Amino acid sequence: MQLFPRGRWFTVIFNDAPRMTEIYCDITTPVEFSDDRVTMIDLDLDVIKRRDGTVLVDDEDEFALHQVKYGYPAEVVEQAQASCDWLVTAVAEDEPFVSVYKTYLDMVR
């Protein structure tokens, strides 16, 4: 199940067991919605929560490389890093990342 929050710099995939990755957050530009399309730019950084509760940041090296290669504006880098930092704590402690999403996974099973 995937979440596309409005006005936020991330998207989230909530995985059901037995997948080892429980929550996978892509740091992205804010999502744009149209009648038949959801659009955003993946900025490489990922926040992952494993089923054992471990939270990690992935692809920091790729994010640093692409900042130079693609000339990310300073505001984009700041927003991406701020979202990443916030998500590291949020996926472990805050809703919908702790239990609310499980209700929706139950509905789609």
List the helices and strands and how they pair.
Elements: E1 2-3, E2 10-14, E3 21-28, E4 32-33, E5 38-39, E6 42-50, E7 55-58, H1 60-69, H2 74-93, H3 100-108
Structure explained in plain terms:
With 109 residues, this protein is an alpha+beta fold. It is 36% helix and 29% strand. It has helices at 60-69, 74-93, 100-108, and strands at 2-3, 10-14, 21-28, 32-33, 38-39, 42-50, 55-58. A 5-stranded antiparallel sheet has the order 1-2-3-6-7. The N and C termini lie close together (10 Å). 21% of the residues are buried.
Q: In percent terms, what proportion of residues is strand?
A: 25-35%
Helix content: 25-40%
Shape: globular
Secondary structure tally, helices: 3
Q: Report the C-alpha radius of gyration, rounded.
A: 14 Å
| Helix and strand run | EEEEEEEHHH
Strand order of the largest sheet: 1-2-3-6-7
Q: What's the total number of strands?
A: 7
Mean of pLDDT:
95
Distance between the termini: 10 Å
SSE class: alpha+beta
Features:
alpha+beta; five-stranded antiparallel sheet; 109 residues; single chain
Give a short summary of the structure:
With 109 residues, the chain is α+β, with helices and mostly antiparallel strands. The protein is built from 3 helices and 7 strands; from the N terminus they run βββββββααα.
